[in-house]
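[recover] target loaded
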């Protein structure tokens, strides 16, 4: 029996346990998962949904203590790992205990960046954990002026959640446009206008010089001297991989813990997955790569002869905010240009309706796309992006539902990227008796990751039901 020790009980570590359980019918793996948080594993990606009151603990809970116990696995919570002894193949826990391993998996995640000058008064939070979420929600219940520092994906989702709780919200962003990694200037302008229409102000090219207050935060001083009143501040300025344990025991670390296509570190007995891992120079920090890494590593651990290797995942980003449809993939931030040497960029803009759509093409293949205000063709666009197929002779067919020239999404097109669920898998679940999203999710896991595919899956279920009635 092989003793696999997983350091980290977050989304990557919990998914690895689930994938091992699915594959290890013979019981060859003796599994222990150690987590520093006191809570059982949960869906961190949906914490903004929990903050806004659109889901509950039951909606974000993953494999819990009972699930581990039923399978004979050990789950130790509230127990940080202090050190790794590679020579003795054991780890030292914060309570002084030690645990041995045959195979060690680092799933230590990432930690939020805190750029504000300290010391900081009460009422200033980062947003990474369940405890952060509870603390922010408790403060938001009595807050009148909330400031979110950071206009990336998480910051904008957080701002929308705080506004839903009744606070007046301002987003302070250091870059010249929102979501600068994903949006070009035209799309960012429209998104800022949409947020303004929802009562959320945006300050661009702005950084925080000081945080003022006594026992609690009262205002922020910006670098240009202006002040913003604030009795709640949420900092969302990105994350950095947690690599301290790996570096301290001598593993190769760059931005993240460096791994090869087998997800092995520089020590062949130690693997790394999820936000802490760096593969081929990329520390992705996204859910779908983390879960794909967990799946592949589980396959390798339960079947050492398996040929599967991790080569990376082409990620698609969605903004989870009610009333705002935004999908970005690949080189979505590429600015339209008349430069013949650059990529071909196809753009449709309707500022009055808040719609902005863009395709970025190289050699007649899709290398980036952006759909804001109307994501009805996201499934077909993602299919071309994933496969690298040649686009239709009129690429605009990919931007508008019903436009001639674009083939419908294939049965093996992915509808839930977090879990790799295809249209065909959803169709099989429906044929087997699933009639709604809850039943299809139970059968396929779709919608249990970031949750942004749920509307697409519901539309597909309805489409399959209509087709079934017509065929009958």
């Amino acid at each position: 029996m092989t003793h696999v020790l997983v350091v980290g009980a977050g989304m990557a570590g919990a998914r690895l346990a689930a994938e091992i359980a699915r594959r290890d019918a013979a019981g060859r793996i003796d599994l222990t998962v150690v987590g520093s948080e006191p809570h059982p594993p949960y869906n961190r990606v949906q914490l903004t949904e929990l903050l806004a009151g659109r889901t509950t603990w039951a909606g974000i809970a993953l494999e819990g203590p009972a699930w581990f116990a039923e399978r004979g696995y050990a789950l130790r919570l509230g127990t940080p790992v202090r050190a790794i002894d590679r020579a003795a193949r054991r780890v030292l826990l914060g309570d002084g205990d030690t645990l041995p391993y045959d195979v060690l998996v680092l799933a230590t995640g990432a930690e939020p960046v805190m750029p504000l000058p300290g010391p900081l008064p009460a009422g200033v939070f980062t947003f990474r954990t369940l405890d952060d979420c509870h603390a922010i929600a408790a403060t938001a219940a009595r807050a009148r002026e909330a400031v979110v520092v950071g206009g990336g994906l998480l910051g904008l989702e957080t701002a929308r959640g705080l506004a839903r709780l009744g606070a007046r919200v301002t987003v302070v962003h250091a870059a010249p446009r929102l979501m600068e990694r994903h949006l070009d200037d035209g799309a960012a302008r429209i998104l800022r206008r949409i947020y303004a229409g929802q009562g959320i102000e945006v300050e661009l090219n702005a950084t925080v010089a000081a945080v003022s207050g006594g026992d609690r935060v009262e205002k922020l001083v910006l670098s240009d001297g202006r002040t913003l009143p604030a009795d709640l501040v949420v900092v969302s300025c990105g994350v950095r991989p947690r690599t301290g344990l790996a570096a301290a025991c001598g593993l190769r670390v760059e931005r993240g813990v460096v791994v090869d296509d087998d997800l092995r570190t520089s020590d062949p007995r130690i693997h790394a997955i999820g936000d802490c891992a760096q593969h081929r120079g990329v520390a992705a920090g996204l859910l779908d790569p983390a879960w794909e890494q967990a799946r592949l590593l589980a396959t390798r651990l339960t079947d050492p002869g398996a040929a599967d290797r991790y080569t990376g995942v082409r990620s698609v980003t969605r903004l989870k905010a009610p009333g705002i449809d935004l999908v970005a993939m690949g080189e979505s931030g590429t600015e339209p240009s008349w430069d013949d040497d650059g990529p071909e960029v196809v753009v449709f803009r309707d500022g009055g309706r808040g719609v902005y759509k863009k395709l970025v093409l190289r050699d007649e293949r899709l290398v980036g796309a952006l759909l804001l205000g109307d994501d009805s063709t996201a499934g077909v666009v993602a299919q071309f992006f994933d496969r690298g197929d040649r686009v239709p002779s009129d690429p605009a067919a990919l931007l508008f539902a019903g436009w001639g020239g674009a083939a419908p999404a294939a049965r093996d097109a992915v509808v839930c990227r977090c879990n790799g669920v295809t249209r065909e898998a959803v169709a099989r679940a429906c044929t087997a008796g699933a009639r709604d999203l809850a039943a299809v999710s139970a059968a396929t896991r779709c919608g249990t990751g970031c949750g942004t595919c749920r509307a697409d899956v519901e539309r597909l279920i309805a489409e399959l039901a209509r087709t079934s009635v017509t065929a009958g």
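[recover] notes: The radius of gyration is 23 Å.
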